[in-house]
Amino acid sequence: MALKQGEILTAIDVMRDAAVIPVIVLDDVAHAVPLARALVEGGIRMLEVTLRTPAALACIEAISRHVPSAVAGAGTVRNAAEARAAAAAGARFAVSPGYTSAVGEACRDLGMPLLPGVATGSEVMAALDGGFTELKFFPAQQAGGAAMLKAFSGPFQDVRFCPTGGVSPANAREYLALPNVMCVGGSWLTPAELVREADWARITQLARDAAALRRG
Ligand code: 3PG
Description:
Low-confidence stretches: none
Structural class: alpha/beta
Bound molecules: 3-phosphoglyceric acid
Number of strands: 8
Strand content: 15-25%
């Protein structure tokens, strides 16, 4: 998919771009641009930068500004204020660990696609009520894994999931084989020690391997 700079994305665009969305934790803004370039080089350009560190917003801003071929999004968005701060920093999509109508409405007002996190049928129903049909299944392994998503496919045929949490190269294929899974999320592409050591070549290789995963 060719992406134009500044083009408004949908949640589907975010999910279908590659089989894996990397979940990124950055402590040092100096790592943001080379890390994003390394991931793009490997074929992964939808980047979820989690709002878990003081540097996160500056990292989103740096990637948005200096790596036009990447699409910086914000992860761990837990309230409306964080959604607004992420959008102001240049985030083009948001991912949240759970769903609240406040986060949903804030993202809708901002025109920022949101993948809200769900782990139960009631949470899927709340997200559907809010108008969201592309959801993060979190924490995927702990909340029932691929078997849970198979069970969700009956009552929630119109929902597409991005399972995240405990997903790895060992089990990603099992998730990606499910018709209601469009992509998976995970932190394995950006291990803390490789980021600390600035080993961008190894991160590119991890991204390349992830980009080669196929959906079922
Ligand atoms: C998270 O939000 O931390 C993600 O679920 C990543 O989980 P993982 O480290 O198990 O991939």
